[in-house]
Design a protein that fits this description.
The protein is α/β, with parallel strands linked by helices and 274 residues long. Helix 1 runs parallel beside helix 3, helix 2 runs antiparallel to helix 3 and helix 3 runs antiparallel to helix 4. The protein starts with a strand and ends in a 6-residue tail after the last helix.
Amino acid sequence: VGLRVGGDLRASSAHLSGEVDDDGRRGDALNLDRARVAGSVYLDQGFSASGLVRLKQARIQGDLDCTGAAFDALGDMAWRGATTVAMDHAHIGGTLVLARQNLPLQGVSLASTQAQALADDDTTWGEDLTLDGFRYRRFARTAPIRADFRVDWLMRQQSPHLGRDFRPQPWQQLIEALRGSAQEHAARDVAVARERLLRQMGRVGMGLPRPLRTLARAGHLIIGALIGFGHKPLRLVVTLAVLWLVCGAAYWTAAENGAIAPLNPAVYNDPRLT
């Protein structure tokens, strides 16, 4: 705790294990709380930990590289609902690398963690994540930026943060990071997914009297279908164009088949218009 390192801190290929107490709970495998590292931290190349890995309030000027790591290697923490990696309030001056994990990260806490960039992939994320306050400027070049992947990532947060204790910050942070990476289309899709989630949770119209909540949710549903909750306004232009063409074709067909005719006798009795 409070370690000071003037260069890099390397624990590549290390196998660490926390002691098990009388209740069967495993203790810390590695405690780097409040560490100050002038270079980068490497927990990679087969690093494994059976027990909690702590980096709370750590300050790392370079990268935190966990490529190919295995956290909670024995799986005896996640099934208890315990936190397996705690980086709360950590500051990473470079990239947080969590790619090519040997085991998906279960019960990871990144509350109020800051990093310049995030490098992850489809092996990275398990369940029960804590992402509230996690800030990053951009995604690394190799990180997935598809909206479906990123929405699935946020949906892996611990259930209270997707329900009664909904945390909006992870969603807004993701939208900002995608826009900062010139991925405006993906950012809009994430924003739409967030609105749908809010409606599913019953948070739309919460401040209204109960009889009006159904009306508010119906309006919310219609706005989502028409303009993507304001994030896809061109949908309305397309909808109106299609409506105009369909109605025009219907009236044209009706007129050609005599189903539509003028009511004014001065018009249909005029020989010039026979």
